[in-house]
## 1
Amino acid sequence: TAWTMAKRLADGPPLATRFTKHAINRAIEHQLAINWELADALQVLTTLTDDTVEARRATAEKRPPRYTGR
């Protein structure tokens, strides 16, 4: 349902969600090919965040992640 999806997004990593939203908004405004490059660059940035480290730790420890937006 929409509520389930909204809850999942709200509980997710804030920076990744923000970057994804930014990439989607840019795709609406500009050519798709250019935005794939942007999405790729933002994905690389996302992998360098503390939230990514926390997500991996939480998965390994079988617990819910505690995202900080960093």
## 2
Amino acid sequence: LGREEELLYSDTRVVDSLAAGEGRVVQFSRLSGLPLRSVYTVRVWATAVPGEARLDNNAKTYRVQLSLSSP
């Protein structure tokens, strides 16, 4: 992995149930120690559940851009 793809944090959250089309917010802690960057890549994925036929939407990549402002 290069600097742009360096793994900075990895964690797992379990969502016990999720209906088709439903969204869920999960929170992570221990993020304050990460190096400050203007852009991060966040990758999320879900394991298949029994009977799930469509698996192409079980992973998503987001580009998160941060900007600092003066108080």
## 3
Amino acid sequence: SASLHVLPKEPRMSFRATAHECEHCKREYLQVRKWQRFCTSACRDRWHNESKAKRIEELEALLAKVEVQK
């Protein structure tokens, strides 16, 4: 008996897929959702972790400035 080869499902296109630049790594990727900003979930996670670290550093610097003014 011949086995059937099952093809993976195509992503559902909610709009016309277009090439976009990833906000984190700057690589070009095919945007399949209009709100998609990153090429992969790993890239999205790295961007969020880095931006969170930057915000923490900024807040710590601001807090240090306030402490000095007391």
## 4
Amino acid sequence: GSPTGGGRYEGGWVGSKQHGVGTLTSAGGGNVYVGGFAHGQPHGAGTSTAADVSTYPPTHLPTYPTYLAT
């Protein structure tokens, strides 16, 4: 599948995977992750905002939705 699974990613890439700093928005626009990526996955400091507008601090990121590449 695509690296964003239908979502939108803006940021750094290495090959076909998100890497560096970027913003990933789910296909429906309800979930947004802003922060670091490594090898196509959220990594390091970042903030995840869920559809219900709850925000998780960088040290307590939830399991990320399945629209990320695996």
